[in-house]
């Protein structure tokens, strides 16, 4: 790991906020993927970042589907959460086919930071434009088991990012971007404050938090809102 961003990751671990004691996903056992990083310790409040002034990287919500779709699905997820990875790999394609591609709904993705590796991965994923960010999010979730269990998760993430056109220099710069780290922590705190998010993945459908125990129930809950 390069010294240029080791200190920034320590900074990220103390950034912020809030009750990062949230559990990953549905009730049940925790996978080794979540054990790959330590939970960040709650610390000082972060200041808001003016994302409108930022020209490099992808800031704010990631929107999938027609932005004008009548139903809004908000997903809060962590890149180190195994249940979130399962949703991304197995369930999101069904949501996309049934609701997003048909114009019935849009999905708004928001990061919910759980630990130091999560915030680094999230900052790295947002290194490029919207298209690159969505591509990296997909790859990071699909390969989560491999990079999260490795001896050097950041090196593995950098390798995956390089295949999407993000150089190691770019990767290091993005992971060291204090404004982005603050922005991601603020996004997490806003989710806790506005929707009482305390686990991942969590879904808000047209302003109401979706209760579910299985991924099939996620589809059923969205279908009920759409219909």
Please tell me about this protein's structure:
The chain is globular and about 45 Å long. Helix 3 (116-125) packs across helix 4 and helix 3 (116-125) packs across helix 8 (178-195). It has one domain: Glutaredoxin (3-Layer(aba) Sandwich). Mean pLDDT is 82; it is low at 1-22 and 26-46. The protein contains nine helices and seven strands, in the order αβββαβααααααβββα. Strand 3, helix 2 (82-100) and strand 4 form a beta-alpha-beta unit. The strands form two sheets. The protein has a five-stranded mixed β-sheet with strand order 2-4-3-6-7, sandwiched between helices. With 227 residues, it is of the alpha/beta class. The longest helix is centred in the middle third of the chain and has 19 residues, at 82-100.
């Amino acid at each position: 790991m390069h010294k240029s961003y080791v200190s920034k990751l320590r900074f990220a671990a103390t950034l912020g906020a809030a009750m990062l004691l949230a559990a990953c996903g549905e009730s049940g056992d925790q996978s080794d993927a979540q054990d790959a990083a330590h939970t960040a310790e709650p610390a000082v409040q972060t200041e808001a970042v003016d994302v409108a002034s930022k020209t490099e990287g992808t800031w704010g919500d990631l929107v999938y589907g027609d932005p004008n779709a009548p139903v809004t699905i908000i997903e809060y997820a962590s890149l180190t959460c195994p249940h979130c990875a399962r949703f991304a790999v197995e369930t999101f394609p069904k949501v996309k086919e049934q609701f997003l591609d048909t114009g019935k709904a849009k999905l708004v993705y928001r990061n919910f930071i759980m630990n130091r590796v999560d915030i680094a991965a999230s900052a790295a994923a947002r290194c490029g434009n919207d298209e690159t960010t969505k591509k990296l999010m997909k790859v990071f979730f699909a390969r989560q088991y491999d990079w999260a269990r490795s001896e050097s998760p950041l090196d593995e993430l950098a390798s995956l990012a390089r295949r999407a056109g993000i150089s190691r220099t770019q990767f290091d710069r993005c992971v060291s971007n204090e404004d982005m780290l603050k922005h991601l922590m603020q996004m997490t705190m806003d989710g806790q404050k506005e929707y009482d998010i305390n686990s991942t993945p969590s879904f808000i459908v047209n302003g109401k938090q979706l209760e579910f125990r299985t991924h099939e129930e996620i589809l059923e809950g969205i279908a009920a809102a759409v219909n």
